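Give me structure tokens for this 215-residue protein.
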Amino acid sequence: MLLRALIICLCLSQPAQACRTALILAMDVSQSVDPGEYRIQIDGLAAALRDPEIAEILVRDQVALSVIQWSGVDAQEVSLDWTQMFSPSHVQIFAAAVERLPRAFVMSNTAPAEALGMALRHFDTSPDCDRRIIDMSGDGTPNAGAEVSRVRRAAERAGVTVNGLAIEGLGRAITNFYQRHVITADGFVETARGHRDYARAIRRKILREISSVFG
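Here you go.
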């Protein structure tokens, strides 16, 4: 709670500045993700945000970040609300908040359509940024909820880019699903070969998403 209060305080104390990218980091916490794998995800995300190359771009481009945890049809939570990266302190505080996030849902289904719809609505409260991107990560295909392709098309109409991080076991089933049904026409899929590869994959993915050469 203290970290969230510090984030809010820092945001309120800063003047409005130009924002290059508003980025939602949407994490799958469905029942296929065990406690150790959840820990790998939040530690990997925190480490990626602290990466010097990423942190420099976040501040330079005044990137706005938010974290959503998602699972079943009625299981989506804004775990960290919009925070614009005005300084290195913002990045460090946000990364620390990620690292301490309690898991929002346990033993719930996988409903990416509802997660994507919730993420789209979350942009209603985002800073005014040049680009809006949803970073959807997951280790499974849907077993509940609506057709995700329809929500993807809504994102395209709204000018929102959807990228995917597919956490594979064997083969490319999750990668193929994200490529065919989740990402927008201007999006891409990054593949992690298991949860232990997540830290590498999320760093590469975020760097590509916020890079000035992307999009």
